[in-house]
Amino acid sequence: MRLLKAFKRIEHHLPQVNHFLLLGTGLGSAWAILRQKYHLNPKSTLVDIDQKILDFSQEWIGDQSEKVNWVCADAQKFLSSQTEQFDLIGIDIFKDLYNPDWVYQHTFIREVYERLSVRGIAVFNYIFQDEFRKIHTLSIMENEFQQIRNDFPQIKYNCYREEIVRASSVFRGCCLM
C-alpha cells in the first residue's frame, strides 16, 4: 500500500524509468506495481541479502522477468560497488520490523543520490522509531537533495509534508513512503 501511494506521487516521472534498482526485494511487489499498474518493463536489478526471498520473488514474477537481474548481496555493499545510474531506486530494506541503522546514515543516502540518473528519483521506505531519527534523517536528505535547488534554482521542488514526500519533477529527487 505504501508503494502504491509513493508511486502515485511520482507517476508523472514513471514513464521515463528505463533502469530500476530495488534494494530489499521482498517478493518483488515494487517491480510488479511498475509492470502491472503502470505497464512498464524497465531493465531492473532486484537486490536482497536472502537467497530464499529472491527465489520466491523469481518464482512469483515468473516468465515476465526477461529484463530482471536478481542479485543476492548486502544492499549497502552492492550500492557502494555500483557505477551505473538508475532512473528509479527503491529502498525497502528491513530487518524484522526495523530499518537497519545504516539506511539512515549520510553515507548511504549520498550513495543513493549519486546512483540516480539526472532525472532519477529515489523512493525510501522508512519506519522511524523516534522523532529524533526522523528529524535527523530528513535533515540529511534535505542537505543531499538541496543540491538540486542550489545547482538549478529554476527547478520546481515539490514537498508534500502530509506524506513526507519530496520529489523533483525535472532533476534528481526523493520520495519517502
In brief:
By secondary structure, the chain is α/β, with parallel strands linked by helices. It has one domain (2-176): Rossmann fold (3-Layer(aba) Sandwich). Helices cover 37% and strands 24% of the residues.
Quickly give the CATH architecture. 3-Layer(aba) Sandwich
Give the mean pLDDT: 80
The radius of gyration over CA amounts to 15 Å
Distance between the termini: 10 Å
The proportion of residues in beta strands is: 15-25%
The helix-strand sequence is HEHEHEHEHEHEEE
Give the proportion of residues in helices.
Answer: 25-40%
Give the count of helical stretches: 6
Label the overall shape: globular
Provide the fold topology.
Blueprint: H1 2-9, E1 19-23, H2 29-36, E2 43-48, H3 51-61, E3 68-72, H4 75-81, E4 86-91, H5 106-115, E5 116-124, H6 131-151, E6 157-160, E7 165-168, E8 173-176
Parallel strand pairs: 1-2, 1-4, 2-3, 4-5, 5-8
Antiparallel strand pairs: 6-7
Helix pairs in contact: 5-6
